[in-house]
Amino acid sequence: MPARRSTSIRGTRTPAPSKRARPDPDEFAPEEVADPQRPRDVVSFALARRSALESLRRGGAFTSEHCDAEPMLLRAAKHHGEPAGRPCPVCRRDLAEVTWVYGAQLGPLSGSARASAQLPVMAHEYGRFRVYVVEVCQRCGWNHLVVAYTLGDGVPRALGRPAR
């Protein structure tokens, strides 16, 4: 007959991590910026995109692995997307680019899709925020991160009231 298991939990209990994200300390450090509208800390994902497309073309990946855009991303492409000026690499239809902004200084605007025409204005209103440009095909669901960069004037701002 197997030994009876103990139902007691042994060990120490650690507190659950806070659900509130802590801002990056460098996010609020003053920074010398010559031109707030000029992108800095630019990261291009062109090589990763090329690798994904090559894997798709060679048959090493299924179309469903790369054409898996979430409904929220598809809606953002429909309402906030701007024409990319190039066809979708999978289905050859029109491709849209969606611009997302993130940053602790943005407050409730963080994590929202914005038109690229709004970015120069935001660069003068906020000290530092990240911009992510994603290409999306509404027809087949292809999506890929194109480029990420930082904008802002480098002057730390006090956070506004959090959104409810």
Average pLDDT across residues?
A: 81
Query: Would you report the number of β strands?
Result: 6
Over the alpha carbons, how many angstroms does the gyration radius reach? 21 Å
What is the assembly state of the chains in this entry?
single chain
- Unreliable stretches (pLDDT < 50, length at least 5) are none
Shape: globular
- Number of helix segments? 4
Q: Care to describe what's here?
A:
The protein has helices at residues 46-58, 63-66, 71-80, 119-125, and strands at 40-44, 82-87, 94-102, 112-114, 129-136, 143-151. The chain has one domain (33-151). It is built from 4 helices and 6 strands, in the order βαααβββαββ. The model has no long low-confidence stretch (mean pLDDT 81). The longest helix has 13 residues, at 46-58. The protein is α+β, with helices and mostly antiparallel strands and 164 residues long. It is 21% helix and 24% strand.
